[in-house]
Design brief:
By secondary structure, the protein is α/β, with parallel strands linked by helices. It has one domain: Rossmann fold. Helix content is about 35%, strand content about 20%.
Length: about 210
């Protein structure tokens, strides 16, 4: 079966840190492919600070050039808003593919705020990438209290396709301080560079305008 890593987010904008983490996860987990699922809208983030989907897709395409990473807005095609619903539909659509959800430690710290987050954990394994400054928040968070008995040792990561779920593994990645928030502060109108462009979805092949 084909193995694919999934990383969702606003990518507002996408940056080299996203790329580095994704390529590291691909190598660490032995993945065949990697999808960036660019969210049409994040329920946990303010809409006023969100660039248009087409611009975020275009910035992601720039960052993934010459890599196996595919950029997709498939949630728009699926008609879903919440990650749990999106992943359920993806698993149903691609029954011959094994997926693993990839997220940063910053997301695990707030994972308990996600709708039906336990359903996500039961649907597919989760790999968490270390992020600077989040270790204490992760350890003390409600999600980690639930996950604790499901944590797998990092040296077992190559066997993730055989794990029963829930299953969570931490991947040790060198600290990377880059963030989309910092990039927006430095260049609030970054998306103007992409406003006239249409981007072909790497999975559905539709044009995102």
């Amino acid at each position: 079966m084909k193995t694919i890593g999934l990383m969702g987010g606003s990518f507002n904008p996408a940056h080299a840190g996203h790329r580095a983490i994704s390529l590291f996860a691909m190598d660490s987990l032995g993945l065949d492919a990697f999808y960036w699922m660019v969210s049409p809208g994040n329920p946990l983030k303010p809409k006023s600070d969100m660039a248009p989907l087409s611009a975020r897709m275009a910035s992601a395409k720039v960052q993934t050039r010459r890599t196996p990473i595919k950029v997709t807005a498939i949630e728009r095609d699926l008609g879903t808003v919440y990650t749990a619903e999106s992943l359920q539909k993806l698993v149903a659509r691609y029954p011959k593919t094994q997926f693993i959800w990839i997220m940063g430690a910053d997301n695990l710290a707030q994972f308990h705020h996600w709708r039906r987050w336990r359903d996500i954990a039961r649907l597919m394994p989760i790999a968490v990438i270390a992020r600077p400054g989040y270790k204490e928040r992760v350890v003390a968070g409600p999600a980690m209290a639930w996950f604790r008995r499901f944590v797998r040792r990092p040296e077992q990561r190559h066997h993730w396709t055989k794990w029963s779920t829930p299953a969570l593994v931490f991947l040790r990645f060198r600290p990377d301080p880059r963030s989309a928030t910092a990039l927006r502060r430095a260049d609030p109108y970054w998306f103007h560079r992409y406003k006239e462009l249409g981007t072909r979805d790497g999975v559905t092949r539709n044009i995102v305008l």
